[in-house]
Design brief:
With 207 residues, chain A is mainly alpha-helical. Chain A is built from 8 helices and no strands. Classes of the chains: A mainly alpha (207), B alpha/beta (560).
Chain lengths: 207, 560
């Protein structure tokens, strides 16, 4: 047990943390692209007409496309000369989800802004943060195509451990490693929502 | 009595034959040796005369003897077998070509070939002989005339870290193995429950092993032969086991090469017997197990004859690489042609053209539907169970449920699946059913815990309303389910969308099936496009059904 912990601490933890950095990188790229695309679609939907209908259809399709399948599609169906890194492939596979999410949340925010409710519109920020954490968790799909992210590091270490008990300890460490930033993120989210509420309430009182 | 007379007569005849045989000279008693047959064949070719050399229908053996050189197709880059540095090629196959030519009494004229060009160059009469790492399979038997016995045999080997205990197929189910697309042995790995990680080029596999992306890699042993000469690689990795042996054959044209083929058959036989192939292989440090086996075979009196190379007991069969076509393969091909002509898009439907691919596709679709149905049901049941536990008046049950929810929310779905798979494999032997069941349970738990939390939160709001004096009705839990219908439906849809991830733990659903199909056939772009369309439509259907369920749940809430 002590030997296992020592081994995990010295060899595994650095590679896990390096891998998790890749998860955050993938999520960062996906949310940035999702914000750009999603915002455009939200504006199109708000304007209505043919463009709005097209945007609504695109959002419906994006919501329905499973990330894992999109990832394999990007990996296999794109022309050879359009080759991209594994990290970029996973990030792009998450864009349909993030763009659809941003489009929905953005549309709500724009409608609230039009309606004069800035507080409701600002809910867009914590919603985007929530989506970011979902993307961090979803980016672990990259393990299936050989991207060196957190789950890949865990699985690689697990392959070296013959005993189920040792592997379960390793998986528990993995859950904690992913869980801590996630729970901290949600805590931050709640704090942000309170601050925003307080700030806007205060602003309203002064005006 | 009659029987005894017949028996005695037969015995006398047999004795007479034995006595006569014993009186014959030794050379007449023994079958003609391969050396004598070869000498006879070469002598006839050399004595053919100038008119035979100029004859358009002259056998290539005569032509080669006349011109004084044999045109051999060799590879430019295949470490240890044929490597060109500047204008000089080195390797086992290069030396084999030189040794064969020396035996024929001619010089070698080397021509560069690769896997795609070797057979066309032979067909165009630009080379006389291929010695270019070509596996002998039944498909190629219709294109070229292979020389028997084979000059080498490769196998697919599984390579992994030295400290990883893998001794056979029983250790493979559920493991990820890095392979190259189109490798004929991929189907073996799939059938043993391995997960494939596909790469375009074999060249990247050693690096992927080193950086930890691949724990195991499967590739031809001839490819790894050179890699294992690097101490840094050999210190860390080793061959675990080999499978899918493929004999390598030299080949000549099917027409106009009968005598040349016969001469090369005899030379190959002699080279095996006398250890020439073995010596050349040792010189280039390639695996010699097969050549040692062959030397024993060709030294045995039964095979060391002029007809040994045609004796099925002495030679190896070609690898049967033919995939049985489906009954509608012709119609599929016609449709592909029509579609390409009409749209300009190159359409390839490998999943419909061969029986193995078609059966994989059907089982993949069936398993996917089972998986989606199971995941939806499991999500709903876990949601109700966890929701009830979180709302329970019994504190330990509530705490346990809370712990499970936090744990599952903190775990990426891939990790949840892997943990579930590890536990399942510890309890049951690997099978497709176990993999699908495990995936259903993991997806149901992950999504059901979130939906259950929504139910508990809805129940809490109902309790607050009741405390404030509102009329809640007789079945608060049912009302809570109705109130959280939107959340439940959202997680049901999420469960359906998550089902392709089950392929990660070896569940043979459609993504997994199509990955397997594309590992031994072409048409990846079409295949994965169709896959994306299929899953998107299925999820949209699930969304539509779930919306109806939502209406049902909400109307149920209204009724209570």
């Amino acid at each position: 047990m002590i030997a296992l912990v020592e081994r995990l601490w010295s060899g595994f933890m650095p590679s896990l943390l390096a891998g998790m950095a890749v998860n955050f990188e993938i999520a960062g790229i996906a949310i940035a692209l999702g914000l750009a695309l999603g915002f455009l679609m939200a504006v199109a939907r708000l304007r209505g007409g043919m463009t709005g209908t097209a945007a609504a259809s695109a959002i419906t399709l994006m919501r329905a496309a499973p990330t894992f399948v999109v990832m394999f599609f990007l990996l296999n169906a794109l022309p050879r000369d359009a080759s991209m890194s594994g990290v970029m492939t996973v990030a792009l596979s998450l864009v349909p989800y993030s763009a659809a999410f941003v489009a929905d949340a953005g549309l709500d925010a724009l409608r609230h802004l039009r309606g004069g409710s800035a507080l409701a519109a600002l809910q867009f920020l914590p919603n985007v943060m929530r989506a970011f954490f979902v993307l961090v968790m979803s980016s672990s799909a990259g393990a299936a195509i050989g991207v060196g992210e957190g789950i890949t590091a865990i699985l690689h270490e697990a392959e070296q451990l013959p005993a189920l008990g040792d592997r379960l300890i390793l998986f528990a460490i993995g859950v904690v490693a992913f869980g801590v930033p996630l729970q901290l993120g949600f805590l931050l989210l709640r704090l942000l929502q309170r601050r925003l509420g307080a700030f806007l309430t205060l602003g309203r009182a002064h005006s | 009595m009659t029987h005894w007379r017949r028996f005695a007569a037969a015995a006398r005849v047999a004795l007479a034959i034995v006595v006569m045989g014993a009186c014959l000279p030794a050379w007449a008693r023994e079958p003609l040796s391969p050396d004598a047959a070869l000498a006879h064949l070469l002598e006839a070719a050399r004595n053919a005369g100038p008119e035979a050399c100029a004859a358009p229908d002259a056998d290539r053996l005569v032509r080669i003897v006349c011109t004084g050189h044999i045109r051999v197709g060799l590879r430019d880059y295949y470490p240890l077998f044929s490597m060109r540095v500047g204008s000089i090629r080195k390797g086992y196959e290069v030396d084999v070509a030189e040794a064969l030519a020396a035996r024929l009494g001619v010089a070698v004229e080397q021509t560069r070939v690769n896997a795609a060009s070797r057979i066309p160059l032979l067909a165009e009469d630009r080379i006389d002989l291929i010695i270019a790492t070509m596996g002998h399979n039944t498909q190629r038997d219709s294109q070229v005339r292979f020389i028997r016995p084979h000059y080498y045999r490769s196998e697919t080997i599984l390579v992994g870290p030295r400290n990883l205990a893998i001794s056979g197929w029983n250790d493979i189910p559920g493991r990820t193995v890095c392979v190259t697309i189109g490798n004929g042995s991929n189907a073996n790995l799939v059938s043993r429950g391995a997960r494939l990680l596909l790469f375009d080029e074999a060249g990247v596999l050693p690096e992927r092993l080193k950086d930890g992306t691949c724990t195991l890699a499967a590739q031809d042993d001839s490819f790894f032969a050179e890699i294992f000469t690097h101490p840094d690689f050999a210190d860390r990795f080793e061959k675990k086991f080999g499978f899918a042996q493929v004999p390598w054959g030299m080949a000549v044209q099917k027409t106009g090469s009968d005598k040349l083929a016969r001469a090369l058959d005899l030379i190959s036989q002699i080279f095996h017997r006398d250890g020439v192939f073995l010596e050349l292989a040792r010189r280039h440090r390639i695996a010699t197990g097969f050549l040692e086996e062959q030397q024993k075979v060709w030294r045995s009196p039964a095979c060391n004859t002029a007809n040994g190379s045609t004796d099925p007991h002495c030679i190896l069969p070609a690898l049967n690489a033919r995939l049985e076509p489906t009954s509608f393969a012709g119609a599929v091909a016609s449709f592909e042609d029509w579609f390409s002509a009409a749209t300009g898009i190159d359409l390839s439907l490998p999943m419909l053209t061969t029986v193995p691919a078609w059966s994989l596709l059907l089982s993949g679709i069936g398993n996917t539907l089972i998986l989606i149905g199971g995941a939806l049901l499991a999500t709903l049941l876990f949601a109700l169970g966890i929701g009830a536990a979180l709302s329970s008046p019994v504190p330990p049950l509530r705490w346990l449920a809370k712990g499970i929810v936090v744990l599952l929310q903190s775990s990426p779905i891939v990790l949840t699946l892997v943990v579930a798979s590890a536990i399942a494999h510890a309890l049951f032997p690997f099978s497709a059913t176990v993999a699908i069941g495990t995936a259903i349970a993991a997806l149901g738990l992950a999504n059901g815990s979130n939906a259950g939390q929504a139910i508990a939160e809805a129940e809490m709001t109902l309790q607050l309303e009741r405390a404030a004096g509102a009329q809640v009705g007789r079945a608060p839990f049912v009302r809570a389910v109705g109130r959280s219908a939107t959340q439940i439906v959202a997680f049901l849809i999420n469960a359906a969308k998550g089902t392709p991830i089950a392929s990660f733990i070896g569940a043979p659903e459609l993504l997994s099936a199509l990955t397997d199909i594309t590992s031994f056939s072409s048409g990846r772009a079409t295949t994965y496009t169709l896959l994306l369309i299929f899953y998107t439509l299925v999820v949209m259907l699930v969304v539509s059904v779930c919306r109806r369920l939502q209406v049902l749940l909400e109307s149920g809430r209204a009724a209570t």
